[in-house]
């Protein structure tokens, strides 16, 4: 810590001079203006000269750390925690850190405030506890510092001003890990009350945090608001403001922050409450990959109602030791449309961020109608069983996705007794039709968007996924035919068994007759074996492949989302270009009145460009991570299925041996 | 025609007769038939076409000076294979059943071989000179054909006769006939069903093959995850390949043992049918004579002649009956024996195959589990 604070200052003087001047100019401007809108308006002046500010910081501060997050989240968390302590911020943080140590020893004493405070305070602590190897080590500190050095080489004030922001932003990863640790590892730290309603936490903090910062300047308060709104916004808004902020402003804010430090826990809390951030999931994935303890089974399909209004209800039982759930085992009844509803909700929330949301099994009007109409048809029983298994696999996929598991809707789906009826899932109802239209337009726009892919990895991966989907489809057809042949074989074997039995019954020679009827029995059993094997083939391979064909569709959806983000970015870039041209024209035409407006617009669009670009970077990173995860899962899944399949093969082969061994003496007994 | 001068037995051992090779020249299949001399270790190899087999069968039918010929159940000769015309699988299957399956007419050869062995092992038929010359003479036996014996015409009339449901004079033969009708139909059905099973097994094997090949297409060596997945795919491909071979083997087991056995069985039953008809005609003949005798009783002048004739007929009938009874016993025991051998062989083959593949699967399983921990 000390090392970092010593190191950080030197680089600043080197690079800051030109910008410092400008900054201070603008800062003065900014500060004379009292309202936020005015504060924003002078900013365009500064935007062009410090263009490097715009270009560099996003890369270093944001994109870089982000990629770090994705690749090595633990380190990331660490770098962020020490970072605030780099300079004056030490003051800020010396306190919370002290708190931490105290908390470690005696939490109850330390926290007069109830759960709300309790948890956030513990956040950094658990980090300290959880990751001792890298924790606070000078190397990680250095990393953090250097990242910032490159990021904001404007001036000290900027740095300081940023650090608090970093504090508010970055610890959020550190908060969630608490959950991870407490949930996964130690039951000692478990605080279910807090975790059960994170939303409450949210709102409370949203209220408390700004309340504690009134002494801060208007800009800082507006920032905190931004912090609380949404993480994307937070990223973009905060940074844009940050680079434009004046040192004066900053200094003032620093002062403001200092008093507010009396309740640093609260600010930390506010940040940690923004739980569902990417780093959290990342951590979670790392941690929970092996200790995943959540068993979901879908059982007891049951027909409810009669006629065309009938539906199948399934029992969804969950078994878990994860403390995010209220109890260890619980069971709810869900109908098929509920599963679809869950998917709708999840995909609405997550697919735009580049997550692969596992798709549920398709609605089958034909199959369901059969179930509704037919009484005890074997084909409808098969349909129900098939769907049951598909739903089970679907849910398992959802919960095995670390970020989807965190989704309140998933929890609600698993836990809540009654769900509001999902409406938008009617197969070809109005909503469905609209969705189809949307998909069609999406497809069209996809064709029209010609993305020049810079990232080779994505380029290859997209191609791979295409190929893979084709292969899977082909394989699926193969397996289907395999299964059909198997079924045919079992049918033929049954008929053969029957005719052998007839032959045996009309045979004169008693020994031969006996042998033949024995043979008929053997063939009957073999028929059973074939039938079992057919269903094994079906469930292990055919359904698996069908699932993966659907999943690959979802993967492609991710790529599309990324492409859309790219498109947004490019559009914004074009717009910005236009605005600049317009401004140049205005300059040339010497129309100062309109010039100001043009500058405003340019600033606005520049902000948007950075925002979109960042979004694109973020989504790219997410998609990349997701696809890698998907590939891993896929290989594991297939391996598991093969082992299962081989076991079944081996089993039936051993049965066969038994049958033949039993028959051989019979055949030999024929006189 | 050769005159059976002496009771010269066949000079080759029946069990050594083998069809070692078959060559296809356009429409004609030429079979290489090897056999071993009884008194020496020298082997004999001759080349025969289907027409020669046909000639042999006709010669057996039309043997002269052989009492009780009509009481003999002749081993059935498989019908003629038409390689070029019946190149479409379904046609060939319809015509030959099991015998059309198998590579390079293997099962057809087996059936012919079995026919020869049966003829050679038959106590009466093996004395026929035609068989000897068929097996030993390197030159193709006489081309004279067209001597279609009564048997061919008789076999055509079989169904007609059955319809009359003529009551046999002897209850023994009546029972036998009923049973035969039953068994013939059933064994035919069983053969067809087994054929279906084998066909499906072959189809499955084919499907497995396709599956295994397309799994190879999924191989991708781009990155670690893809490599892992490719490994899985290749492993699965191996497994499916094993399943494929398993099916192929099971199918060929079925084919070479039980299939052939059932086929033979059903053809034997058909042969028995024909034989029964012959018997029936003999019976009818006697009845006819009896009726004639009754009508011509008045004519005393002819009575003596008629009585003498009747006696002769009765004597012949008795002879035929006794031969027939022996023959049917022999037929049953040989039939049961043949079926038994086929069943045992089949069972053992299936058992071996099952064991072999159980072993193979467990190896694969082990490999897969190890792959897990990698």
TrEMBL record, chain A:
Entry's PROSITE patterns?
PX
Q: Where in the cell is it found?
A: Cell projection, Lamellipodium; Early endosome membrane; Golgi apparatus, trans-Golgi network membrane
Keyword annotations from UniProtKB, A to Z:
Acetylation, Cell projection, Coiled coil, Endosome, Golgi apparatus, Membrane, Phosphoprotein, Protein transport, Transport
Q: Which CDD domains match?
A: BAR_SNX1
Q: Output one GO BP term.
A: early endosome to Golgi transport
Q: Which GO terms describe its cellular component?
A: cytosol; early endosome membrane; Golgi apparatus; lamellipodium
- The UniProt entry's coiled-coil ranges are 595-622
Similarity remark? Belongs to the sorting nexin family.
Family matches, as PANTHER family = SORTING NEXIN (PTHR10555), SORTING NEXIN-1 (PTHR10555:SF129)
Q: What is this protein called?
A: Sorting nexin-1
Q: What is the lineage of its organism?
A: Eukaryota, Metazoa, Chordata, Craniata, Vertebrata
UniProtKB/TrEMBL annotation, chain B:
List the Pfam families hit by this protein, alphabetically: PX, Vps5
GO terms for molecular function, please?
A: phosphatidylinositol binding
Q: Where is the PX domain?
A: 1-142
Record PANTHER family: SORTING NEXIN FAMILY MEMBER (PTHR45850), SORTING NEXIN-5-LIKE (PTHR45850:SF2)
User: What protein is this chain from?
Assistant: Sorting nexin-5
């Amino acid at each position: 810590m000390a090392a970092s604070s010593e190191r950080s200052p030197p680089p600043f003087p080197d690079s800051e001079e030109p910008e410092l001047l400008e900054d201070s100019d603008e800062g003065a401007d900014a500060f004379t203006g009292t309202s936020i809108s005015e504060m924003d308006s002078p900013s365009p002046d500064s935007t062009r000269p410090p263009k490097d500010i715009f270009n560099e910081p996003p890369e270093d501060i944001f994109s870089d750390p982000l990629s770090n997050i994705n690749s090595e989240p633990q380190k990331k968390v660490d770098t962020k925690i020490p970072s605030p302590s780099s300079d004056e911020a030490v003051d800020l943080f010396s306190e919370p850190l002290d708190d931490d140590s105290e908390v470690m020893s005696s939490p109850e004493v330390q926290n007069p405030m109830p759960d709300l405070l309790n948890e956030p305070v513990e956040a950094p602590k658990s980090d300290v506890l959880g990751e001792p190897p890298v924790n606070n080590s000078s190397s990680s500190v250095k990393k953090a510092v250097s990242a910032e050095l490159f990021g904001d080489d404007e001036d000290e004030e900027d740095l300081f001003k940023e650090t608090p922001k970093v504090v508010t932003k970055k610890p959020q990863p550190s908060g969630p890990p608490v959950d991870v640790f407490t949930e996964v590892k130690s039951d000692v730290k478990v605080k279910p009350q807090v975790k059960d309603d994170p939303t409450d936490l949210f709102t409370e903090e949203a209220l408390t945090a700004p309340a504690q910062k009134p002494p801060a300047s208007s800009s800082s308060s507006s920032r905190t608001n931004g912090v609380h709104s949404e993480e994307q916004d937070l990223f973009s808004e905060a940074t844009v403001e940050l680079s434009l902020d004046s040192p004066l402003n900053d200094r003032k804010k620093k002062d403001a922050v200092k008093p507010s430090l009396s309740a640093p826990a609260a600010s930390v809390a506010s940040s940690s409450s923004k739980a569902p951030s990417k780093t959290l999931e990342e951590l979670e994935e790392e941690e929970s990959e092996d200790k995943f303890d959540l068993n979901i089974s879908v059982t007891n399909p049951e027909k409810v109602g009669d006629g065309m209004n009938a539906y199948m209800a399934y029992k969804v039982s969950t078994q878990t030791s994860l403390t995010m759930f209220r109890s260890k085992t619980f069971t709810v009844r869900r109908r098929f449309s509920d599963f679809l509803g869950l998917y709708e909700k999840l995909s609405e929330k997550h697919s735009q961020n580049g997550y692969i949301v596992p798709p549920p099994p398709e609605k089958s009007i034909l199959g369901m109608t059969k179930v509704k109409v037919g009484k005890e048809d074997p084909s409808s029983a098969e349909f129900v069983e098939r769907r049951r298994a598909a739903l089970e696999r679907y849910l398992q996929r959802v919960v095995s996705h670390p970020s989807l598991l965190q989704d309140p809707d998933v929890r609600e789906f698993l836990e809540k007794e009654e769900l509001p009826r999902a409406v938008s899932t009617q197969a070809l109802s109005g909503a469905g039709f609209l969705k189809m239209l949307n998909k069609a337009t999406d497809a069209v726009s996809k064709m029209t968007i010609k993305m020049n892919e810079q990232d080779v990895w994505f380029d290859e991966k997209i191609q791979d996924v295409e190929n893979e989907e084709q292969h899977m489809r082909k394989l699926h057809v193969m397996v289907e035919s395999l299964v059909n042949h198997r079924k045919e074989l079992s049918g033929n074997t049954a008929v053969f068994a029957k005719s052998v039995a007839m032959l045996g019954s009309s045979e004169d020679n008693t020994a031969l007759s006996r042998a033949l009827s024995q043979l008929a029995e053997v063939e009957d059993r073999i028929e059973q074996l074939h039938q079992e094997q057919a269903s094994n083939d079906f469930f292990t391979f055919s359904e698996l492949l069908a699932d993966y064909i659907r999943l690959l569709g979802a993967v492609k959806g991710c790529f599309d989302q990324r492409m859309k983000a790219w498109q947004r970015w490019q559009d914004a870039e074009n717009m910005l270009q236009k605005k600049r041209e317009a401004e140049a024209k205005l300059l040339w035409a010497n129309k100062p009145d309109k010039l100001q407006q043009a500058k405003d617009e340019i600033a606005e669009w520049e902000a948007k460009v950075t925002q979109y670009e960042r979004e694109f970077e973020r989504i790219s990173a997410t998609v990349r991570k997701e696809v890698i995860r998907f590939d891993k899962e896929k290989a594991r899944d297939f391996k598991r299925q093969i082992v299962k399949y081989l076991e079944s093969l081996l089993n039936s082969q051993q049965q066969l041996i038994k049958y033949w061994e039993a028959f051989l003496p019979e055949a030999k007994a024929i006189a | 025609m050769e005159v059976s001068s002496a009771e010269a037995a066949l000079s080759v051992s029946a069990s050594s007769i083998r069809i070692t090779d078959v060559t296809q020249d356009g429409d004609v299949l030429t079979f290489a038939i090897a056999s071993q001399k009884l008194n020496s270790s020298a082997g004999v190899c001759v080349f025969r076409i289907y027409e020669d087999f046909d000639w042999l069968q006709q010669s057996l039918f039309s043997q002269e000076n052989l009492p009780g010929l009509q009481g003999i159940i002749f081993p059935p000769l498989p019908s003629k294979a038409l390689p070029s015309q019946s190149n479409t699988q379904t046609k060939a299957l319809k015509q030959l059943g099991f015998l059309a399956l198998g590579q390079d007419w293997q099962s057809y050869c087996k059936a012919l071989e079995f026919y020869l062995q049966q003829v050679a092992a038959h106590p009466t038929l093996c004395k026929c000179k035609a068989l000897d010359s068929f097996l030993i003479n390197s030159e193709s036996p006489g081309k004279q054909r067209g001597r279609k014996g009564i048997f061919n015409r008789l076999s055509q009339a079989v169904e007609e006769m059955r319809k009359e449901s003529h009551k046999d004079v002897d209850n023994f033969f009546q029972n036998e006939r009923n049973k035969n009708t039953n068994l013939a139909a059933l064994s035919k059905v069983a053969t067809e069903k087994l054929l279906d099973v084998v066909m499906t097994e072959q189809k499955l094997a084919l499907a497995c093959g396709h599956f295994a090949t397309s799994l190879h297409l999924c191989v991708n060596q781009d990155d670690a995850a893809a490599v892992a997945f490719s490994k899985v795919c290749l492993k699965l491909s191996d497994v499916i390949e094993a399943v494929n071979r398993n099916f192929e083997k099971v199918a060929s087991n079925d084919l070479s043992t039980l299939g052939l056995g059932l086929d033979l069985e059903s053809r034997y039953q058909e042969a028995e049918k024909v034989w029964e008809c012959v018997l029936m005609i003999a019976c009818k003949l006697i009845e006819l004579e009896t009726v004639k005798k009754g009508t011509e009783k008045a004519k005393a002048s002819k009575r003596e002649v008629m009585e003498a004739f009747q006696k002769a007929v009765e004597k012949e009938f008795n002879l035929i009956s006794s031969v027939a009874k022996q023959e049917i016993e022999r037929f049953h025991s040989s039939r049961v024996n043949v079926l038994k051998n086929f069943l045992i062989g089949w069972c053992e083959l299936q058992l071996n195959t099952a064991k072999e593949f159980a072993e193979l699967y467990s190896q694969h399983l082990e490999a897969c589990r190890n792959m897990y921990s990698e």
